[in-house]
Amino acid sequence: MIQESDIRIGNYVCYFDYNMQEYVFVVEGILNGFIYNSGLPKSKISCEKANPVMLDLDQLTKFDFMPGSKEDGEDENVFSLKYNRLHSIHIRYEGGIFQPVTDTPQGLMPYGRPIVHVHQLQNLFHALTRDELTL
């Protein structure tokens, strides 16, 4: 189950059909406890039947996050996405945990809670940049 207040239009969420097959889709609308997408049965599903999509390294790289280069002295566990000429979003992946980190004079420092789901990464990116993070 996913909370209506946790998602926004453009987020990736999923549901399981009667055969327990997982289907990932993009939220096109949210209203009164329902998530709307034109590809869904009846074009909507209740938030109670929708589930968050777990974040993994494969999805992080599909969003164009690149691992640090050891040759350049960067941490290989830090994945970065450059969103403008000066700034990047950094996520450290260690021990199965995706932790946002930021540049400081002392190096990369963690902030916030670890990210578990794809929609959380999308929401963080949107909050920081006002751009959409899409596949």
Characterization of this structure:
The protein is built from two helices and eleven strands. It is mostly beta strands and 135 residues long. A five-stranded antiparallel sheet has the order 7-8-9-10-11. It has a three-stranded antiparallel sheet with strand order 2-1-6.
Keywords:
135 residues; mainly beta; 3-stranded antiparallel beta sheet; 2 helices
How would the blueprint of this fold be written?
Elements: E1 12-16, E2 22-26, E3 29-31, E4 34-36, E5 44-46, E6 51-52, H1 57-62, E7 66-67, E8 78-82, E9 88-94, E10 97-104, E11 107-110, H2 118-129
Antiparallel strand pairs: 1-2, 1-6, 3-4, 4-5, 7-8, 8-9, 9-10, 10-11
The structural class is: mainly beta
Rounded to an integer in angstroms, the radius of gyration calculated over CA atoms is: 16 Å
The quaternary structure here is: single chain
Gap between N and C termini: 23 Å
Number of strands: 11
- Written as H for each helix and E for each strand, in order along the chain, the element string is EEEEEEHEEEEEH
Shape: elongated
What's the pLDDT, averaged over the residues? 92
User: What is the strand content?
Assistant: 25-35%
Strand order of the largest sheet: 7-8-9-10-11
What is the share of helical residues?
10-25%
Which segments are poorly predicted (pLDDT under 50) over 5 or more consecutive residues? Answer: none
Report the major sheet: 5 strands, antiparallel
Q: Total number of helical segments?
A: 2
